[in-house]
Amino acid sequence: MTRSADINPRFVPFARGDTEQSIVERFRQQAHRYPAHPAIESLYESLTYSELDSQSNRLANLLLAHNEGKMSQGPVALLFGHNPSMVIAMLGVLKAGKSYLPLDLRWPVTRLKEVLTHSQSRLLLTEDACEEIAKEAMRPLPAVLNTSRLPEEISEAEPDVVIPPDQLAYI
């Protein structure tokens, strides 16, 4: 039998107690343990655990500030390319105590609208490259937030949200 550690020597198995933590808590432990290590690497961008932690904290804090009305119910929809911005958004949503709904850029706008309607999502996060599609998919709701242009004054502090281990992560 091949073990994960044999395939990937950097693989570190979870201790049994770690599985009783939320995804966010487990990430925070890794970020505190290895702040300068790469957390995400792509062809064009690399983020350390510290950078991913602070950027996802900023997004979570912004989402918590927007929590009045717009996202009080339903998952937060995500429309991104396959890049580090998507991971930042996923983690930021989880840190805000919400679940996310990943959307596929290859879907036609009619399919995106249908999924958004059935999911009862009231907020869609996106990036510059996907903003026009996102706005069309959310019409008539104006709740599209472009994470490429977050206000500078948003705090990088860890959000004060308790997330249980059984919190729904995504649908």
Quick synopsis:
The chain has 171 residues and is α/β, with parallel strands linked by helices.
Strands in their spatial order, largest beta sheet: 4-3-5-6
Provide the residue-averaged pLDDT.
86
The best one-word shape is globular
First-last Cα distance: 33 Å
| Proportion of beta-strand residues | 5-15%
Which stretches are poorly predicted, pLDDT < 50 over at least 5 residues?
none
Largest beta sheet, briefly? 4 strands, parallel
Q: What percent of residues adopt helix (DSSP H or I)?
A: 25-40%
**Radius of gyration using CA atoms only:** 17 Å
Count of alpha and pi helical runs? 6
Q: What pattern of helices and strands is seen along the backbone?
A: HHEEHEHEHEHE
Count of extended strands: 6
* Structural class computed from helices and strand pairing: alpha/beta
Task: Explain the overall architecture.
- With 171 residues, the protein is an alpha/beta fold.
- 37% of the residues lie in helices and 12% in strands.
- The protein is built from 6 helices and 6 strands, in the order ααββαβαβαβαβ.
- The chain has helices at 4-7, 23-33, 49-65, 84-95, 109-119, 131-138; strands at residues 38-41, 46-48, 76-79, 100-102, 123-126, 144-146.
- The protein has a 4-stranded parallel beta sheet, with helices on both faces. A two-stranded antiparallel sheet has the order 1-2.
- Strand 5, helix 6 and strand 6 form a beta-alpha-beta unit.
- The longest helix has 17 residues, at 49-65.
- It is globular, with a radius of gyration of 17 Å.
